[in-house]
Write the structure tokens for this entry.
Amino acid sequence: MEALLLAHPFWGWMVLGAVLLALEVATGSGYLLWPAAAAGIVALLTGLNLGLPVELLIFAVLTIAGVLLARRYLPKPFRAQGHDVTDPHHRLAGQHGHAVDAFTDGAGRVFVDGKEWAAELDGGGDLAAGAKVEVTGRADGARLRVRAG
């Protein structure tokens, strides 16, 4: 296998790109998409016989450029929000949904992003079932903080 990858660097870069892409699909982090794309581009450039050091440099530059451009130009729904990309509560901030049942004393359940969540109403109070809500953040544990609207 090593001999094949050394004799044909195209396949080495394609394998790296495929592995990175598979990890991206498995994690959904958004961070591995750009190195996977960079590996694919470098694989296409191996026909120019640039040599491994130049290919590694091109890979690094394309990865960094891809990440920076994505952070600058992709709209926020495509980028992770909050401090922890695996925390769905940060991702849900700003999303709209509706109250599943009536809120009593500021506590109830909401349907947001295709799932039902325990929720706490900003400022407390009551809210009718079916009322529109907007997620403002996380209360405590797995409960969302929401406001009417």
User: Anything to note?
Assistant: The first helix runs from residue 2 to 7.
